[in-house]
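FAQ

Q: What does a record look like?
A: Structure on top, sequence underneath. For example:
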């Protein structure tokens, strides 16, 4: 009897302890929920109340591992406890800015009937595309090759105390230290999407694909050669190598037997994009995927949609709406080309050991030089000044100085713009017309949802002329 009574008492105590633990867990989750909601819903009330309310105390994240130490900036940044939230500020400004208001209205109209066109990007990958500025209650959906690196830097600067411009952050540190929604549970994600200002930037699909090809396939990028190149060319050979490896009939495959895939043409690349969007047999990459698939614009209510074609105006709109004055878009524009040159030079140097397995450093530098000419950063009249022997020992600092010198000697901005436009036309003339028509079909949602012309004259009308050979434009050794 005594033993049974003791057991009942012990079980009762266990039940009591379990109830207390459960209560603590629920209360903690409730506090988190209060933080997301009461901080937003009562922002228009007493300022001091927020400072004393434990459920609305500001939370910080340790970002000290970034290029320069980054901490929440309570001095220079807009306080999270302002009279109106970022969401309200941007929505109010959008209603009064005519071209933004029209753009959003057309976007909503384009989404009618497309609410269930979701795409193939796995649900688990979606949160990684959304970057957060906690101090300014901003959520940015990143679309690669549409200003993603720049905007991720901007969000980090907004959350910092000692950074003045985005280019103080190394490009290699941008993705590593970005704050995404990936670590949040579903309820916090939904709460933040409701309470934060949500925005994205898009780009003309034709321009975006060309930029992706130049940056990831044409220039010396062994990682993408190995990952995407194998998807584009010789799938039979890849399967054969995998079978041999599994059977352990070959312990070592000679270098000459494994292609580098460094010579993928733009025509082959376009075919890969078509196949990757049409079928599930090809590995996809965010740099080349449909924009709607990455950010779900017809399922998520965006407060602002910017375009790379009107970047200056759109950037100024966001900064003005949020009363942020620490950025000058004209100053940032002047820094852009220097940042591009530095990124190109350091990337080549860091990849040197892998690059030389496939091509000489001389050809790698020549390709990057051509890339800068295609982008309209240096003139066609400025030739790469180093010999093959000199290229072997060229260091990043010297190459950056050479690029800057070539830029200073280049013609006017108008001439460089025309040069860039002509390259765009000529490069798309290397692709079969029927293939371009297929490309429009697989990217139809991007053209319709974001209001881009599906059959522009520069791509289709001028393509009727005699087709150009890939080597006529891209052969850096000619």
């Amino acid at each position: 009897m005594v033993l049974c009574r003791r057991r009942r008492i012990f079980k009762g105590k266990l039940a009591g302890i379990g109830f207390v633990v459960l209560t603590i867990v629920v209360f903690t989750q409730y506090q988190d929920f209060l933080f997301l909601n009461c901080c937003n819903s009562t922002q228009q009330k007493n300022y001091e109340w927020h400072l004393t309310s434990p459920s609305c105390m500001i939370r910080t994240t340790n970002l000290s591992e970034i290029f320069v130490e980054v901490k929440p900036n309570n001095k220079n940044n807009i306080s999270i406890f302002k009279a109106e939230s970022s969401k309200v500020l941007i929505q109010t400004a959008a209603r009064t800015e005519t071209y933004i208001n029209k753009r959003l209205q057309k976007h909503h109209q384009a989404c009618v009937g497309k609410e269930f066109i979701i795409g193939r990007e796995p649900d688990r990958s979606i949160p990684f595309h959304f970057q957060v500025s906690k101090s300014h209650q901003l959520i940015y959906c990143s679309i690669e090759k549409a200003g993603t690196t720049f905007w991720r830097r901007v969000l980090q600067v907004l959350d910092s105390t000692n950074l003045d411009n985005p280019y103080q952050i190394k490009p290699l540190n941008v993705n590593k230290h970005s704050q995404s929604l990936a670590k949040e549970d579903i309820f916090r994600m939904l709460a933040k999407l409701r309470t934060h200002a949500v925005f994205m930037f898009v780009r003309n699909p034709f321009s975006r694909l060309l930029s992706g090809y130049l940056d990831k396939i044409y220039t010396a990028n062994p990682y993408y050669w190995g990952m995407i190149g194998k998807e584009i060319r010789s799938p039979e050979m890849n399967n054969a190598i995998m079978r041999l490896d599994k059977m352990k009939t070959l312990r070592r495959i000679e270098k000459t037997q494994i292609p580098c895939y460094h010579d993928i043409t733009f025509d082959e690349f376009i075919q890969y994009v078509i196949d990757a969007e049409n079928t599930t047999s090809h590995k996809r990459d965010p740099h080349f995927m449909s924009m709607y698939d990455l950010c779900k614009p017809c399922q998520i209510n965006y407060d602002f949609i910017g375009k790379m074609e009107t970047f200056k105006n759109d950037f100024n709109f966001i900064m003005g709406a949020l009363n942020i004055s620490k950025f000058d878009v004209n100053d940032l524009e002047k820094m852009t080309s220097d940042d591009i040159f530095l990124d190109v030079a350091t990337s080549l140097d860091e990849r040197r050991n892998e690059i030389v397995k496939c091509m000489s450093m001389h050809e790698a530098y020549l390709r990057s030089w051509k890339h800068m000419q295609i982008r309209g950063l240096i003139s066609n009249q400025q030739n790469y000044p180093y010999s093959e022997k000199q290229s072997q020992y060229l260091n990043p600092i010297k190459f950056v100085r050479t690029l800057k010198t070539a830029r200073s000697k280049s013609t006017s901005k108008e001439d460089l713009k025309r040069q860039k436009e002509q390259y765009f036309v000529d490069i798309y003339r290397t692709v079969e017309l029927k293939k371009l028509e297929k490309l429009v079909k697989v990217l139809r949602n991007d053209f319709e949802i974001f209001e881009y012309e599906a059959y522009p004259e520069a791509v289709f009308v001028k393509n009727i002329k005699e087709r150009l050979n890939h080597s006529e434009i891209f052969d850096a050794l000619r």
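Q: Is there anything notable about this one?
A: The chain is about 55% helix and 5% strand.
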